[in-house]
Write a structure and sequence with these properties.
43% of the residues lie in helices and 11% in strands. By secondary structure, the protein is of the alpha/beta class. The chain has an 8-stranded parallel sheet. Helix 1 packs across helix 3, helix 4 packs across helix 5 and helix 5 runs parallel beside helix 7. The protein binds 3-methyl-2-oxobutanoic acid (KIV). 3-methyl-2-oxobutanoic acid (KIV) binds next to loops.
Amino acid sequence: MLTAYDFPSAYLLDQSEIDVVLVGDSLAMTVLGQENTLSVTMDQMIYHTSAVSRACKRALVVGDMPFGSYQSGINQAVQNGLRFIKEGNCAAVKLEGGKQRASIIAAMVEAEIPVMAHVGLTPQSMHRFGGFRVQGKSHETALAIIEDAFAVQEAGAFAVVLESIPIALAAEITPRLRIPTIGIGAGVHCDGQVLVWHDFLGLHQNRIPRFVKQYANLYPQMLHAVNDYCNEVRQGVFPDEQHGYCMPDQELFAEKVAEKYGNCAANPSDEGKLQESKI
Ligand code: KIV
């Protein structure tokens, strides 16, 4: 599983061997430049989920329920889950939390909304956790995460994300569940893995968590491309004839225009003219 937030990246993922495309609430940070995921809204999530769904003919699209869209009760959760399916056109939703969300998951599944659960480090609980910290390091908290994983499975979740937990804990949970585990910062013993698109491709220069492996580092290449473009435009190298259109009898046309409007500076990159008229 990888995240995507727009049509072109989702299209690429759909052409790849990826099984699941998650429209994560990480959208808030990766695309909208927020500090955390808490502020992203239902409308924003639906807008991006529908773009991703349009691109995916093969991969399963999962929409991530944002903070505040399911925490206040079953009715709210079902209503918002239905919006994801009807307006976002995805086939499933993801929500964060274990035991305390079991009744909500059960009601959503009952309402024909397939649910992927998410336990361990749940970023929407960052204020309770005191930041983005590895969860389940003590035996007591690790046992509580095992309980959470069983609870979401019993509630009817079809898969569960395990985020930022010790490798040994994910190795205990995975073989004990009937449903697949999808790890992020949870080690190799999960059934699947997920990464965030912008981290995975090195599309930014922000700090990345220890568990992220960058499969490409595209930021420097993109910066280089933009600066090449600026230089070529300033030097009049781009656009060359190859990237433009010719017209038949253009000399004759130039004569006609000169006859009607008089002569002008032939070279449009004439610096004096540019400075006067544009700057
Ligand atoms: O929002 C997100 O991208 C996620 C994944 C990191 C699992 O929840």
